[in-house]
Amino acid sequence: MNSRRSLTSATAATMSFLLYICTTVVVTNGELQRFIEPAKSDGSVSFITIGDWGRRGDFNQSKVAYQMGRVGEKIGLDFVVSTGDNFYDNGLFSEYDPNFKESFSDIYTAPSLQKQWYSVLGNHDYRGDSEAQLSSVLREIDSRWICLRSFVVNAELVEIFFVDTTPFVKEYYTEEDGHTYDWRAVPSRNSYVKSLLRDLQASLKRSKATWKIVVGHHAMRSIGHHGDTKELVEELLPIMKEYGVDLYMNGHDHCLEHISDEDSPIQFLTSGAGSKAWRGDVDPTTNNPKSVRFYYDGQGFMSARFTHTDAEIVFYNVFGEVLHKWVTSKQLLLSSV
């Protein structure tokens, strides 16, 4: 069922609401909620992926944001993808937490970044009031903000499947983790994950997009500080392979990475360097299998551009310099009428 949010009165017709109101929301039983992002007139789609960023401008967050604005203008940005850990150290304490404005609205001010931001929750977001980031109150404060647990962005030739990965990680349910998580929406880890994966499968099965992307907070493959997430490799990766997913994008590790899967075409792309990085605890020269195409232990972000035949992924540092570029092509599948 398609529904468009409409203005209820003339006094509600303010610019702060227009962006979200004009976004088409599609809800289908048994599948994830969908948002529609039309492709450009030339058929292309461009977006920036950023993760692990919300620190009130500190740890070079503001500098990264500035370069994002420059790149966004250059590529004709359509929207932004956030891979989670949106607000440090412990998410938001409520929908009225000033950290939202101080770490988001006041930082990403470039004209090119005044587009929808599609966000998932990270483990740090779950340490606060996880419901706050999902609240419509935040969209009243800044209409760019859209954050759900799991959902789909349909950009015609590209479909992006956002997955709530924090509930997958079994360590977070133990006292050994040392943190408290807001599990109000996750009464049972196993039933939550099972239901999420069932809905994801239904959405992937329905997809006719040329390019399929899954976005989550946690890395599936990484040589960074946190490394691979075992639960995602065991439970999510087989579904991605079955339904022909092209890319997996994540944050969590505060670095930039590009790793190729060893037995499928899937590419694993980490963009978790939106602010605090430079851990310095990983030596890529001693832990660099052939599948690792790129690793950078510093601040930056990633851009992605898609056409019906080509995809271009570019990683940038805090100075806006290109660190790594990957281009691939996909043959158009032509069918006779």
Structure, explained:
- This protein is α/β, with parallel strands linked by helices and 337 residues long.
- The protein has one domain: Purple Acid Phosphatase, chain A, domain 2, CATH 3.60.21.10.
- 20% of the residues lie in helices and 24% in strands.
- The protein contains eight helices and 17 strands.
- It has a ten-stranded mixed beta sheet, covered by helices on one side. It has a seven-stranded mixed beta sheet with strand order 7-6-5-4-15-16-17, with helices on one face.
- It is globular, with a radius of gyration of 19 Å.
- The two termini are 28 Å apart.
- Mean pLDDT is 90; it is low at 1-22 and 332-337.
- This is Purple acid phosphatase.
Keywords:
seven-stranded mixed sheet; 337 residues; disordered C terminus; alpha/beta
Please specify the SSE layout and strand pairing.
Blueprint: E1 2-3, H1 15-21, E2 24-26, E3 34-36, E4 45-50, H2 61-75, E5 79-82, H3 99-105, E6 117-119, H4 123-126, H5 136-141, E7 145-147, E8 151-155, E9 158-162, H6 189-206, E10 211-215, H7 230-235, H8 237-242, E11 247-250, E12 256-260, E13 267-271, E14 292-296, E15 300-306, E16 310-317, E17 322-329
Parallel strand pairs: 3-8, 4-5, 5-6, 6-7, 9-10, 10-11, 11-13
Antiparallel strand pairs: 1-2, 2-3, 4-15, 8-9, 12-13, 12-14, 15-16, 16-17
Give a brief rundown of this model.
This protein is of the alpha/beta class. The protein has helices at 15-21, 61-75, 99-105, 123-126, 136-141, 189-206, 230-235, 237-242; strands spanning 2-3, 24-26, 34-36, 45-50, 79-82, 117-119, 145-147, 151-155, 158-162, 211-215, 247-250, 256-260, 267-271, 292-296, 300-306, 310-317, 322-329.
